[in-house]
Amino acid sequence: MVLNLLFKKNILFFLYFYLLFFFLNLFFNPLLSNEQNQQGKALISNFFNNTKSLTARFNQSLVDSDNTLMETSEGSLKIKRPNLLLWEYKKPYDEKIIADGINLWIYDVDLKQVIVKPQAESFSNTPAELLTGEIDIISKYDFIGTLTYKEIVWVKLRPKNLESSFVQIEFGFQEGILAKILFADNLNQTTLIELMDLVINQDIGNEIFNFSLTDDIDLIGTPIISDNRVMQ
């Protein structure tokens, strides 16, 4: 019974996801509605110009090039611009991704193992760079068009850099508030992120974006230490 319910749930989600992605790509046309496109540009401009921080819970789904639902996950996120990110997965595994402005830490809680990489190199031309970057980060993207579907205003952007890790990203706004993010990567995989309990411009202290490396955690990689930063 439980397996049947899960199977039906996955099938229904897949149909929603596939139809959404197909519909958006089929009907996104910058010439369809100038008024609608102006609305989309205003939403994007307001988000990137006025969002200093955001917190939310999220559900994330990944579909591969064969339109097979590969993975679903959920958790919470905190972003403080510029360049600070805390992305916590709670299901189906416990993992933390922390960007402290210099290093990117990927921490497997169960294994007590952390991988550290230079943040600038890891974030370059990725959706994470777009979400956490300076205000002018939006200049690296072309506006493609706007479409309203089921009360969600979708705004589609495409990276100008052809070597970007993804080919397009779509922001879905509901009543002016960011509600969904959909992006397709170079492997023809598509990721949908649904945001809940979104809070914009809450005061967030920088300390939560510091990874505390203790003796019981295995470290893979070498963190960069700046002159004005002390590793904990």
Automatic annotation (TrEMBL):
Gene Ontology biological process terms in this record: lipoprotein transport
GO CC terms: periplasmic space
InterPro entries: LolA/LolB/LppX, OM_lipoprot_carrier_LolA-like, OM_lipoprot_carrier_LolA_Pbac
Gene3D superfamilies (alphabetical): Lipoprotein localisation LolA/LolB/LppX (2.50.20.10)
TM ranges: 12-32
Main location: periplasm
CDD domains: LolA
Compartmental location: Periplasm
SUPFAM superfamilies, A to Z: Prokaryotic lipoproteins and lipoprotein localization factors
Keywords: Chaperone, Membrane, Periplasm, Protein transport, Transmembrane, Transmembrane helix, Transport
Protein family per UniProt: Belongs to the LolA family.
Subunit details: Monomer.
Stated name of the protein: Outer-membrane lipoprotein carrier protein
The organism of origin for this protein: marine metagenome
